[in-house]
Amino acid sequence: MNVDIDQSWKLHLQEEFDKPYFEELVSFVKSEYTSTKCFPPGKQIFNAFNHAQFDNVKVVIIGQDPYHGYGQANGLCFSVADGIAHPPSLINILKELEYDLGHAYPKSGNLESWAKQGVLLLNATLTVRAHQAGSHQGKGWERFTDSVIRTISEKKQNVVFVLWGGFAKKKKQLIDTNKHSILESGHPSPLSANRGYWFGNKHFSKINYQLEQAGLTPIAWKLE
User: Fold this and answer.
1) Rounded-to-integer distance, Cα 7 and Cα 223, Å
2) Catalytic site residue 65?
């Protein structure tokens, strides 16, 4: 199966691409994109991997579904394209960034600059129908992205895995905690954040602390 993904990932994931379930998934996604409006745009489905090459990954942030509103999803979890209004979860992420590191709240919610520094912004499901949250769940994406997490855990060292909310925390079982760090908190969605499970987690400074402890370059989190 030929997938439009950065070569550094193909080396580690080709076996997954060749499995029958993945061929069925590709067929399903192609059919959906042909027959109805889906997000993100087809060329951006694997954006998380194309901006954060395998060898450079040092942080993994796990989301669930792409945004399902027009113009929002750009293939990076929690991120939106430049000029797009910030969805509620992203607003709370950027507020926490402001509280934690003192960076002014940015105009843009595009997190590409994080990805290019080695932050894999990975949704468990990589596609969705317009205005139908969860519409592409259970079709094979989760099996694929679980394999991605497991591969990173097995083949890399000192990666910081960031698990926000109950869904992401279930991925903990895929991660070797003897080799990697895990940060957990509530989800940045208003429901969770307003109950006190999000604000004050200081995950951005904690990620950089863990990276520095491992002798790695910290992430420049500031957005414009």
Assistant:
1) 28
2) yes
